[in-house]
């Protein structure tokens, strides 16, 4: 990213806001991945606690996407007593009404490069994960997955966005949506540097 900034600056002057993910010495943000995800979900847990009188403990959670953000969210939620009842990634999806053992799943994913074949849950059609019965839905994979076609069938009471624009504006069905805050860091960086 530093190279891209350097090349751009040769023609347009020093403009650090043109790229993100720069080293600290080039006005990048000091955020380690684990810390970033911890802060991200701590903010949302507080939002649930303060604004809606809810705590994570005992909440049934579905996570679409078990990459960096989704797996870290699952770990944090599990540590706080949340019950992860379904998880998906590009290889497949699993569900377990009693709760998925996140440490075992993380080990399986590391060894097998995906949730497919994990024996701690039942197979689930990945296309239906957003429609699973849960208290909290966390889309942590792709944008536009919650749209006007499927919004009315989503059973979650809360949606915590953890992907880039997973919820289309046309999908408003009165569910509480907590928008992705990781992008606020990027916005803050752009405003700081312009």
UniProtKB/TrEMBL annotation:
Keywords: NAD, Oxidoreductase
Top EC class of this enzyme: oxidoreductase
Signal peptide segment: none
EC number: 1.4.1.3
Entry's Gene Ontology molecular function annotations: glutamate dehydrogenase [NAD(P)+] activity
Glutamate/phenylalanine/leucine/valine/L-tryptophan dehydrogenase C-terminal domain residues: 42-193
Pfam families: ELFV_dehydrog
UniProt xrefs under InterPro entries: Glu/Leu/Phe/Val/Trp_DH, Glu/Leu/Phe/Val/Trp_DH_C, NAD(P)-bd_dom_sf
Similarity comment: family membership: Belongs to the Glu/Leu/Phe/Val dehydrogenases family.
Stated name of the protein: glutamate dehydrogenase [NAD(P)(+)]
